[in-house]
Design goal:
InterPro entries: GAF (IPR003018), GAF-like_dom_sf (IPR029016), HATPase_C_sf (IPR036890), HATPase_dom (IPR003594), His_kinase_dom (IPR005467), HisK_dim/P_dom (IPR003661), HisK_dim/P_sf (IPR036097), Sig_transdc_His_kin-like_C (IPR004358). It is an enzyme of class 2 (transferase). One of its GO terms (molecular function) is phosphorelay sensor kinase activity. With 443 residues, this protein is α+β, with helices and mostly antiparallel strands. It folds into 2 domains: 7-173, GAF domain (Beta-Lactamase), CATH 3.30.450.40; 271-442, Heat Shock Protein 90, CATH 3.30.565.10. 49% of the residues lie in helices and 19% in strands. It has 11 helices and 13 strands. It has helices at 7-19, 26-37, 85-93, 145-234, 240-266, 279-294, 313-330, 348-354, 377-382, 400-410, 436-442; strands at 46-52, 57-64, 79-81, 97-99, 117-125, 128-137, 275-277, 297-301, 309-311, 336-346, 361-369, 414-419, 425-432. The strands form 3 sheets. It has a 6-stranded antiparallel beta sheet. It is rod-shaped. The relative contact order is 0.07.
């Protein structure tokens, strides 16, 4: 062959040594070697194979000449088992071979265009065969020691680059694994912190609930005696001035009874009587009975076909009135309260996006939104704490929202408070919907 061992060969190899540093992946490397190195050294054709250790096969990855009519696209790439044919034997032995006359070689597998001579050089790294560079020629005796030396040099440079690319990929993978591990560790740390905070909150509320429930039971017994005695006194004629004091005592007893009810609700010890309930109808009826007492506008938006829920109607009405009063007070009697309902299927996506602490299933959402100044983040974190209130002394016990939360949880639901940057606050209450089959049996 002409050109090998010439100044042109040295220039081609020097260019390869420079360009090889900027090649970023094995595919580009294989095609560069076939076209820009072997192709410029007057080899009439070149096929490069990559070894697949899993199947012990050589897979065609690049080609030059008539065997490459589609650019960098190889249709039906050749797959040669290790040990089969001249190329496969090179992959098996790891030794280069030059065949001067293929007609006399029993290992030759004729191609679509039979050749007369062939040179085959392995790509080797640490004793492992990475691939093979193969070239055929239509004339016998086309390859000799000079071509073998040139192709062996190209193979050595290619193998070294493949090693470097593999190490680069391993380093990048180790970095990706490290980043993933760090992210996973960070997520686990955040999750653990959140769980610890939830556990602390649950234990705190449990302790307060037990204390509150015990206190409510004891106070209710005392209040029953007081109210009974007041009723006995009221059955006798008393002077008018005594009647005034008696009325005040009865009003105080009634307020005490309401306070006990709220405390029992917070401690989730209310005696609830769940019934299949149309939440839309209950809201409308509650507003009809209480609209004169609120003194503000209410806008209602009910989703059609809202599912039936199993709740205690009286306790639900009390909770709704508490939320509406809270909304009215937040607006200082100005603005509009918006009440909405809607169905929700709670799944992993809904729990993650809405921050719901609910079991998977069907729920009906009741939302009460005000147009007030909104709730600061620090206050939002404590909004359901018992006895926490932002009202002035004498205007609130701090049990309204905690009572609502206790009732909702006892009913198998959840409540979430949220406030936007533009003001206003929304309380979303989720009640579990009745299964249609169960609903039919209840009705």
């Amino acid at each position: 062959m002409s050109g090998t061992g010439s100044v042109g060969t040295l220039r081609t190899l020097n260019s390869f040594a420079i360009d090889i540093m900027s090649i970023r992946n094995a595919e580009d490397l294989f095609w560069y070697v076939a076209r820009n190195v072997v192709g410029r050294l007057n080899f009439v054709d070149c096929v490069i194979y990559e070894a697949d250790p899993a199947t012990e096969e050589l897979v065609q990855v690049a080609a030059l000449g008539d065997k490459n009519p589609y650019g960098r696209t190889i249709l039906n790439p050749l797959r040669i088992p290790f040990g089969e044919g001249i190329t496969g034997r090179t992959a098996r032995t790891g030794e280069a071979v030059v065949i001067e006359d293929l007609l006399s070689n029993q290992n030759y597998i004729p191609d679509t265009q039979p050749a007369r001579s062939e040179i085959c050089v392995p790509l080797i790294s640490d004793g492992r065969v990475l691939g093979v560079i193969d070239s055929e020629h239509p004339e016998a005796g086309a390859f000799g020691p000079a071509e073998l030396e040139v192709l062996s040099t190209i193979a050595a440079m290619t193998s070294a680059k493949l090693d470097l690319l593999a190490e680069t990929e391993r380093s990048e993978q180790r970095y990706r694994d490290l980043v993933q591990s760090h992210a996973q560790l960070s997520a686990e740390t955040e999750t653990r912190k959140a769980l610890e905070a939830q556990l602390f909150e649950a234990r705190k509320l449990e302790a307060i609930g037990r204390l509150t429930g015990g206190f409510a039971h004891g106070f209710n017994n005392l209040l029953t005696v007081i109210a009974g005695n007041l009723d006995l006194v009221g059955e006798h004629r008393v002077p008018p001035e005594v009647g005034v004091f008696l009325g005040d005592a009865r009003a105080a007893a009634d307020r005490g009874a309401n306070l006990i009810r709220d405390m029992m609700a917070f401690s989730q010890q209310m005696r609830l009587v769940p019934q299949p309930t149309d939440l839309n109808a209950l809201i409308a009826e509650t507003w009809d009975r209480n609209q004169k007492a609120f003194g503000c506008d209410v806008e209602m938006a009910f989703e059609a076909g809202t599912w039936t829920v199993a709740v205690d109607p009286s306790a639900t009405e009390i909770a709704l009135v508490n939320l509406m009063m809270n909304a009215r007070d937040a607006m200082e009697d100005r603005g509009t309260i918006r009440i909405e309902t809607g169905n929700l299927v709670c799944d992993d996506v809904a729990r993650r996006t809405r921050g719901l602490d609910l079991a998977p299933g069907r729920y009906v959402r009741l939302s009460v939104t005000d147009e007030g100044m909104g709730i600061p983040p620090k206050t939002l974190q404590r909004i359901f704490d018992p006895f926490f209130t932002t009202k002035v002394v004498g205007q609130g016990t701090g049990l309204g929202l905690s009572m609502v939360q206790g009732f909702v949880k006892q009913s198998g639901g959840s409540i979430i408070a949220r406030s936007g940057p533009m003001g206003g606050a929304t309380f979303d209450v989720y009640f579990p919907a009745i299964d249609p089959d169960v609903n039919e049996s209840l009705t």
